[in-house]
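step 3/5: co-fold with pyridoxal-5'-phosphate
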Amino acid sequence: MAQKVNEDHVFYRTPTKVYPTVDRGEGIYIYDKEGRQFIDGSGGAAVVNIGHGVKEIEEAMLKQASRIAFTHGTQFTSEAAIELADRIVKMSPPGLSRVYFLSGGSEAVETAMKMARQYQVDRGNPMKFKVISRWASYHGNTVGALALSGHTGRRRYYLPLMLHTPHIAPCYCYRCPFKLVPETCSVECAEELEKTILYEGPDSVSAFIAEPVVGATAGALVPKDGYFRRIREICDKYDVLLISDEVMSGVGRTGRNWALDHWSVVPDMIVAAKGLASGYTPLYVVVAKEQIHQVIKEKNGTFVHGHTYSQNPLSCSVGTAVLDYLKKHDLVAASAQKGVYLLEKLKGLLKHPIVGDVRGLGLFAGIEFVKDKKTKEPFDPKLRVNVLVGNSAFAKGLISYPGGGGADGVKGDHSLLAPPYIITEAQIDRMVQIMDEAITETEKKVQG
Ligand SMILES: Cc1ncc(COP(=O)(O)O)c(C=O)c1O
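step 4/5: write tokens
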């Protein structure tokens, strides 16, 4: 049954849009109530990594639910939480050995912010409170996480509510903020962090947060080699914690457990989520260094923070089942291999006059659209080129994740692709073919 605008009582994100009603999911496909099939080419929003309808996950959920689904984190621990924490620590870099469980990404980002702050206070640095982040980034929509996010369009309405959080330029080689080229630059964008820490005062800066591969705001921006190593050095020099926001890029999405593993950089905290439960349940984590846990434990005895659904046993059982499935089917390696194939195929889209750049790592890929390929001039945001491409692909049976604002916070259009790691090469071919057709259709509309 097709839904009609505002006929029901749901407060939709876009109340003027007609959403198809979903029926079920199977593998890389989603089916709606009218029987239409869609390739879940973006895994929702880089969430679904093992595919839909996996029986093992359903069984793990039922098994846990038949024992107990909920306990409050201040009253009990559970075997489910202990087991999942152990599994996450085993897949994380050395030293990151404490896992704080949550149920939302913005909530997890704010938890990391507060954990950094309490750690600094408890170890005798009460002035350290600022968290530096980057432009062209997304860390969530709650007020604290939005303050960190570098997306002007999303921030505008809520600016008066926001904390002071300094932003630095992103590592965005296609639109280098310093007009340099990656072949010869010295990651000047990383040096911006040092300058900003000095401007703000090193004794006031608690942490720096960044997405190792930027997702929603810029379409799979991969940093130059050496960028995060330099960032790590600067953080160490000024006693600033490095928080890696791997909400999209973590749990195998880029072809490694964590995206920062590509550059052998160890952060102080990892914020991770989406792929951890592959969409079967809300499950987010902050993985913290032992030292952070130790200081909070010794100096205060309590982390002055918490949420009702922290350590939810049902969600934790799903997380372990998803990690088991990834391991059993060697899906992180599959993400790396198929990612190479996907990127190769997507490069073919550069033939289009409006495709300026194609980039990615693992099964995390972005296509950036421009009005003028030579000057890289973005389209007028009013044209909503990203939405036109997304809608056209959707009508042809492919779900992609349109985004914008990468160029200057408002302008800039891209599509993000992040399919489940079980996708086959033939299915990737079909995805790319649909994108090709959707871009052709959009070109006709915006270029006449
Ligand atoms: C990198 C990153 N951090 C944080 C978030 C916020 O997560 P949530 O939407 O669950 O609040 C997102 C969501 O897309 C994200 O991509």
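step 5/5: annotate
The two ends are 36 Å apart (CA to CA).
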